Amino acid sequence: MNPTTSASLNKKSNLFVKTLFAFIFLFVFIAVLNIFQKQIKNSFYLLSSPVEKTFWRAGDSASVFIASLINAESIEKENEKLKSENQNLLIKIMALQEAERQRGAINEMLANDTQNEFSLVLAGASGFNSSQDIISINKGSADGIFENMPVISQQKVLFGRVLKVYENFSEVEMISSKNNVLNVKVQNSDSSVAPIYGVVRGNGSSGIFLDLVPVDSKINKDDVLVTSALEGIFPRDLLVGRVKETEKNDLKPFQTIKVEPFFNVQEADNLFVITDYKK
Predict the structure, then answer these.
(1) What residues form DSSP beta bridges with 128?
(2) CATH topology for the 120-274 domain
């Protein structure tokens, strides 16, 4: 046998042996997999489950997030619609409440003004300047309002007089203004006693006091002050205030009398302007 033929046979033999070993190894590997299939699968699960769970949760979260983004716009539109409907409803309720308050004010004024003494214009209070004791009302020259017209509540409590008039609103100077001087009478149930007159002055900040009452005049706590009409601006017998405290000094000709006003700015929703008062 020549050397070339011998080398060829050796190569074929080596290839056969390698192939045989490969088949044997593959057979053994498959057999092992079949025998230990459950154990291997379990081990793989233990190793891979945390990663799988993370991706699964992330997938759920992403799905929820995407769904929420899709629904967010429609929910926002629905919320805006509900908010708008609630605001419209509140406006209607407020309008009904205001109309009811105005009807109540008119009815109360009619009950108090049994003799129909004056022509009145109902006005709503729209602002208050506390530094100058001025109330703004929503009626002006277009409604027949002029300067110096008296302004009262439905209980015939005097608030003040019209100071400035604009087309659609007016400014009312309250009797508590420091510029105010108002002639009043101290009400007394005893008709045999001579009436006591004085002047109410404003001291700002919704405060008033009674002045020019002689020191020998008898003024009691809780005496009621009403307008006397002597100054020619306000009708008589409008309610002004109640005596709170008196101070006498024999060295002074007049008493110092603190007065609690009847008006209440916080409750001044509806006021009445007397448009036809003539002294």
Answers:
(1) 135
(2) Thrombin, subunit H (2.40.10)
Instruction: Please name every residue paired with 226 in a beta bridge, in sequence order, or none if there are none.
Output: 185, 239
What residues form DSSP beta bridges with 154? Answer: none
Confirm if 227 and 184 have CB atoms less than 8 A apart.
Answer: yes
Q: Is 91 left (phi over 0), alpha (psi -120 to 50) or beta?
A: alpha
Q: What is the DSSP letter of 127?
A: E
Rounded distance, CA 255 to CA 182, Å? 17
The answer to whether 204 touches 178, Cβ cutoff 8 Å, is yes
Number of Cβ within a 10 Å radius of residue 200: 24
φ, ψ for residue 64 (rounded to 5)?
-65, -45
Residues 6+ apart with CB under 8 A from 168: 138, 139, 140, 142
Angle at 223 between CA 214 and CA 264, to 5 degrees: 115
Burial class (CB in 10 A: 0-12, 13-18, 19+), 113: middle
pLDDT in tens, 39-89: 654 555 445 545 444 544 444 455 555 555 556 667 777 777 776 666 666
Q: What are phi and psi of 250, to 5 degrees?
A: -60, -20
Type of residue numbered 185: K
Alpha-carbon 199 to chain mean position: 40
Rounded distance between C-alpha atoms, residue 188 and residue 175, angstroms = 22
Q: For 185-228, write each residue's pLDDT tens digit.
A: 998 766 677 889 999 999 999 999 999 999 988 888 989 999 99
**Domain boundary assignment for the chain:** 120-274
